[in-house]
Specification:
InterPro entries: Acyl-CoA_Oxase/DH_mid-dom_sf, AcylCo_DH-like_C, AcylCoA_DH/oxidase_NM_dom_sf, HpaB/PvcC/4-BUDH, HpaB/PvcC/4-BUDH_C, HpaB/PvcC/4-BUDH_N. With 472 residues, the protein is an alpha+beta fold. The chain has 15 helices and 14 strands.
Length: 472
């Protein structure tokens, strides 16, 4: 079924969660200035899903329409629809929608658990389907946590056990886990948190090879939020000083302090092969959707750049208009890679996954293009996004009249209108969202390693040998 964004917020406000901001426990977390932007962002994923049929597909599992982000992709058309949804969300939010990892976890766990059951005769896939039915029927918002803290990278997990999420006790009714996950976008505002392994493991490291789901009622789960300059801006208030009301990709560190997980929510348990399959599925899924995500972000920046030219009175300057054309080209190229990877994807145990080589290319090209677009936006905007007075100066009885007078560039726009655009551009150029967009879904270097492994260099070399007549 599909619910509204308001219903999601209402349900979320009924949860009791242990969330900390600046060392203090938050009580009314859905209304906290550093959490509310995340809640607003996720709420939009509900509203947008109901506006287009391709964003709310029919699920045979529950005999009803469901949110595209809770759907198991069955073919290339499904995957393309998911990428279109992702792009539009990123454009309309100008920040993270926080649910992409949950969707990728669903589409990674589905084939991984099915393979495991066929190989071992277990019932992990059945368990997963039961939770997926609940997710689809109740229209839950899901996220996924992968990155362990790892500590000293020269040590194997066995030598630094506490730095990895691991099993501390096995019971008849479930397992007890301990550890932490870092860089977790919006986990505190989700209904379901999938927890997946951070890497592949060797024999003897089975206690780390686990995947499970966390629900709001699970005790011992703590969320410690990031605190950047933008979080401080949200706390000081204002109508538009923060630039983007949907925030700047707000993340947290998730602590698992001896958390009990019942068996029905354990989907991989001490299985090294299933862990490899799961991580491969997730990596290609998440890196590929990241290309469409970047396309949407670039669409947002392109809109900001165009508005910036207008409020600055420079929208007829050819050299600046050309930079906007470049930005459009980068956005379309990034999304095209995602669409191509879906078209050339493959079926795996009932799930349609993107082409591995193209998915990793999407990550690399998406980030490179993103960096170029940021520079274009900075050149178009000039220095004003980092030197402008604040909203509070504009509204000041003492100096407001000066800001109103001297912050006007194009007489068709007031100082306040220009400042709203300026602050939004400032958000893109100076917030923590920029770094998050680069490393979200894994660093570009990791994707490059995959490209080196996956590329058929023999075929490429032989083609050149044929052209130049090289026999050896």
């Amino acid at each position: 079924m599909l619910i509204s964004g308001d219903k999601y917020v209402e349900r979320l406000s009924g949860y009791e969660r242990e969330i900390y901001v600046r060392g203090e426990k938050v009580e009314d977390f859905t209304n906290h200035p550093n959490i509310k932007p995340v809640v607003k962002s996720i709420a939009l994923t509900y509203e947008l899903a109901g506006k287009k049929d391709e964003y709310s597909p029919y699920s045979k599992l529950v005999d009803d329409k469901v949110n595209r982000l809770n759907y198991v992709n069955e073919n290339a058309e499904d995957l393309i629809a998911r990428y279109d949804f992702q792009r539009e969300l990123s454009m309309r939010l100008g920040t993270c929608n926080y649910r992409c990892t949950g969707c990728d976890a669903i589409n990674s766990l589905y084939p991984a658990t099915k393979e495991m059951d066929e190989r071992l005769g277990t019932d992990y896939h059945k368990r997963f389907l039961e939770l997926l039915k609940e997710i689809q029927r109740k229209d839950y918002a899901c996220t996924a946590a992968l990155t362990d803290t790892k500590g000293d990278r020269s040590k194997r997990p066995k030598e630094a056990k506490d730095m990895y999420v691991h099993v501390v006790e096995k019971r008849e009714d479930g397992i007890v886990v301990s550890g932490a996950k870092i860089h977790q976008s919006g986990a505190f505002a989700a209904d379901i948190n999938f927890v997946l392994p951070t890497q592949t493991f060797k024999e003897g490291e089975e206690e780390f090879a686990i995947a499970f789901a966390v629900k709001p009622e699970d005790e011992g789960v703590k969320y410690i939020l990031q605190n950047t300059g933008y979080q401080a801006k949200f706390r000081e208030g204002g109508e538009f000083e923060i630039g983007n009301p949907y925030g700047d990709r707000i993340t947290c560190t998730v602590i698992f302090d001896n958390v009990f997980i019942p068996w029905e929510r354990v989907f991989v348990f001490e299985d090294l092969k299933a862990t490899r399959n799961l991580l491969t599925n997730f990596a290609i899924s998440h890196r590929c959707v990241g290309a469409s995500c970047k396309a949407g972000f670039i669409d947002s920046m392109t809109g900001a750049a165009s508005l910036m030219l207008k409020v600055n009175g420079l929208d007829r300057v050819p050299v600046l208009r050309q930079k906007i054309g470049e930005m459009v080209g980068v956005s379309e190229a990034a999304h095209a890679i995602a669409v191509g990877s879906a078209t050339k994807g493959f079926e795996s145990y009932g799930t349609w996954l993107p082409n591995m080589l193209m998915a990793n290319s999407g990550k690399v090209i998406g980030v490179e293009g993103f960096n170029k677009v940021i520079m274009n936006l900075a050149e178009i905007a000039g220095g004003i996004p980092v030197t402008a007075p604040s909203e509070f100066d504009l509204k000041s009885e003492e100096v407001g009249k000066y800001v109103e007078k001297y912050l006007v560039a194009n007489p068709e726009f007031s100082a306040e209108e220009r400042m709203k655009v300026i602050k939004f551009v400032e958000f893109w150029i100076t917030s923590s969202h920029l770094l998050g967009a680069v490393h979200g879904g894994g660093s570009p270097a990791a994707a490059v390693v995959f490209l080196q492994i996956l590329a058929d260099m023999k075929e490429r070399e032989e083609a050149v040998r044929d052209i130049i007549g090289l026999k050896r």
